[in-house]
Specification:
Blueprint lengths: L4 H8 L16 E8 L3 H13 L3 E4 L13 E3 H10 L2 H7 L1 E3 L1 E6 L2 E7 L11 E3 L2 H17 L4 E4 L3 E7 L4 E7 L2 E12 L6 H5 L5 E4 L3 E8 L8 E5 L9 E7 L3 E9 L4 H4 L2 H12 L6 E8 L2 E4 L4 E2 L2 E3 L5 E2 L7 H20 L9 H25 L4 H14 L29 E2 L16 E2 L2 E2 H4 L4 E6 L8 E2 L2 E8 L5 H8 L5 E5 L5 E5 L4 H11 L6
Parallel strand pairs: 1-2, 1-11, 2-8, 5-14, 11-20, 22-29, 25-27
Antiparallel strand pairs: 3-7, 4-7, 5-6, 9-10, 10-11, 12-18, 13-16, 13-17, 14-15, 15-16, 18-21, 19-20, 23-24, 25-28, 26-27, 28-29
Length: 542
């Protein structure tokens, strides 16, 4: 019924096989940016930097072979970032698009939810797409960018074995099939996962909580007529499922199933193929035809570093923070790390912003990590009540949610990933518009259909001044940083009016390269925009 996933993806996704380079026989050469780790976060960051013209080198200790399905749920904000990088539509076309989820308690359906009940957005709320495909589409886009002259290099089977910070650079020891060599990095970006070797080399802490529970993942290959929805059971009715179970579809007729096993388990016994099949048979019904493709057992962990920047070394993705899989916050949050870091690092390297701007990466993304950890912890506590009274409360909420809408927000089967709003942080300018809360200062810009186009597609890769029913001030740059102008009318675009104007007659929005809103006004002068730009670049206070 098909090769196991390791083989299925290994054969197709040897994306950057090892090849010797001249530097292996030269004194250590200096690179502006070296990224360690070729997963979704490392590749998204490399693509973003390279498209901006910043030279970047990616080192990965394998050659692009995906092992298992790993992350599968990619959220709307991640897809919007992928669109900006040129890879989003291929992901959507390949992925299983879904907006609806259903929650069950035993045999009874408690309620269902729609993550994107409104239209006027280019991207869906979520797609399910195996991580190897996500990585492949990013690497394909990197190859296309390289052909256009983007300064991106990927070296497979180049493993980092040592490092030493030396003032204005980091000296790296790299091992290859042909032996070791050294390079220098002005900036080293650690995208090397939850077990980050770089974090260990530097002796940095990774603090948080490990939850006393185990979950079995089983990816099965089968043809089934289940709808493309997220189905979650509390106290599922099928034998051996444990306290909860989850089912949803991936491409290629692969279905992801999660079973909650409890804490005191025999891992080897639970991973035995016959025992896994017994659980899946009980769920799918007698006679169901399927093949086990990939299995694993994991525990919940919610941890993060205290700071994500350590002089010339910056951590992103799972190397900086880790959350439980429920809620799809890991890869999605990591891609948003890359989105936040790329423009700041690019501006610093080009001398357009002070080095201190990089500290705001840690400031903003630590807030996002704390928000994700809080939501993940609450989900885990709801899934796994720690006392009898907690279980009584959980089950009472589920009972009420069947018939009463007020109880449904209390049901937590893994609150799904949404982007963080940087409320009250240091790069924010003034909010001088009595406009919609969803597009307040610090929030990511919300997409809006504009005729046959979409708003986010019309924003520049730099700063954009979005002017609705008012003229833009005469200002095309601030201290050498370009500002693109986008002048629109709310007439004929109900989405734009609803999401950006509200009851206001006009609006001016200053939007960052990562599409977060810096400042907004009813109307704005050149001095207003200049002050807000200086704040956004870490040069002053608006």
């Amino acid at each position: 019924m098909g090769a196991p996933l390791e083989n299925r993806y290994s054969l197709a996704f040897e994306l950057y096989p090892y090849a010797p380079v001249a530097e292996q026989t030269m004194p250590a050469q200096r690179h502006p940016v070296v990224i360690v780790g070729g997963g979704p976060i490392g590749m998204a960051l490399a693509l973003d930097l390279g498209r901006k013209g910043t030279p970047v080198l990616v080192l990965d200790d394998h050659d692009g072979v995906g092992q298992g399905s790993r992350a599968i749920c990619f959220a709307k904000r991640t897809l919007e970032i992928a669109n900006r990088l040129g890879a989003g539509q291929r992901m959507i076309d390949k992925g299983v698009v879904w907006n609806v989820g259903k929650v069950f308690h035993g045999d009874d359906r408690v309620f269902q939810f729609d993550l994107q009940p409104e239209d006027g957005h280019r991207c869906p709320a979520f797609i399910n797409l195996q991580q190897p495909y996500f990585e492949k589409f990013l690497v394909d886009e990197i190859r296309a960018a390289q052909e256009q002259g983007a300064p991106i290099e990927i070296r497979g089977r180049n493993a980092l074995t040592g490092m030493d910070q030396r003032g204005d650079h980091v000296l790296l020891d790299v091992d290859t099939p042909d032996g070791p060599y050294q390079i220098e990095a002005e900036w080293l970006i650690a995208c090397d996962g939850a077990r980050s070797p770089i974090r260990d080399m530097m002796g940095l802490s990774f603090d948080g909580r490990v939850f006393e529970d185990n979950f079995l993942i089983a990816d099965v290959h089968m043809t089934a007529d289940f709808p493309t929805e997220r189905w979650f059971w509390f106290e599922p009715p099928f034998e051996g499922a444990g306290q909860s179970a989850l089912l949803h579809k991936q491409p290629d007729d692969i279905w992801r199933i999660d079973f909650q096993l409890g804490w005191d388990i025999d891992r080897a016994k639970e991973l035995h193929r016959d025992n896994i099949r017994a659980r899946v048979d009980a769920m799918l019904g007698e006679g169901a035809e399927y093949e086990l493709e990939w299995t694993s057992i994991y525990t919940f962990q919610c941890r993060r570093m205290q700071e994500f920047r350590h002089d010339r070394v910056i951590f992103a993705g799972d190397s900086a923070h880790q959350v439980s899989p429920f809620g799809a916050r890991g890869a999605n949050s990591g891609v948003q790390d890359a989105d936040n870091l790329a423009w700041k690092l690019d501006y610093v390297l080009r001398g357009l912003a002070p080095e201190a701007l990089l500290d705001t990466y840690s400031e903003e993304r630590a807030v996002a990590a704390d928000e994700n950890i809080l939501n993940s912890t609450r989900a885990t506590d709801f899934l796994t009540p720690k006392s009898e009274i907690s279980k009584v409360f959980r089950n009472a909420v589920l009972e009420l949610a069947r018939d009463h809408a007020f109880a449904r927000p209390l049901v937590n089967s893994g609150r799904l990933s949404v982007p963080c709003v940087y409320d009250g942080l240091s790069l924010n300018g003034p909010d001088m518009l009595d406009g919609p809360a969803r597009t307040r200062v610090g929030a990511p810009a919300v997409d809006a259909k504009l005729g046959d186009a979409y708003l986010l597609d019309r924003l520049s890769d730099g700063f954009t001044l979005l002017c609705i029913d008012t003229a833009a001030p005469d200002l095309d740059n601030v201290e050498g940083v370009p500002i693109a102008h986008l002048e629109l009318t709310g007439k004929g675009s109900p989405y734009l009016t609803e999401r950006y104007l509200g009851d206001a007659d006009s609006a001016v929005y200053l939007i960052r390269p990562d599409q977060h809103i810096v400042a907004r006004w009813a109307t704005a002068t050149a001095d207003d925009v200049t002050a807000a730009m200086r704040t956004a670049l870490g040069k002053g206070t608006a």
